[in-house]
Amino acid sequence: MRTRPTAVLILVALLAITLTAGSALAQGSVKKAKELVLLVTPKEAYEKSIEQMTTQMLGAMRAQGQQIPAGIEQKLKAAVMEAMPYDEMLTWTTEIYAKRFSDKELGDLIAFYKTPTGRKAAKMLPELMGEVGAKTATVLPQRLPAALKKHGVM
Asked: Which of 43, 102, 131, 151 has the fewest Cβ atoms within 10 Å of its own Cβ atom?
């Protein structure tokens, strides 16, 4: 399977979306940040996010006219899971949250994600990010080539 720069950029953009958090005020503890990350991104949600991301990436590649071999979805998911293991992603995400939120803010977020609404938000996050990713996967291939050319990248 040959990937085009657009497909790689989509993959990078979707991974970046899964790692972003709010703005920094003060540094929080890693312990509190990990508690929050485990609430927001349990392993099942991470795996679902990877599955949705790979499905969307393949869809974008198909939309570009690339021939995708049958059964490649599971192989691609396995490759991404190997390249970005959950435990490593958990560590990175924890570090990012600890840098961007104070202990009080982390505590507030933990309290929220323990509410019924917070649990629902955490459970739906992969689906929501999937919808955002699907939109990105349709818009980015249309707009990116011209933008890359305009900015002298291609």
From this structure: 151
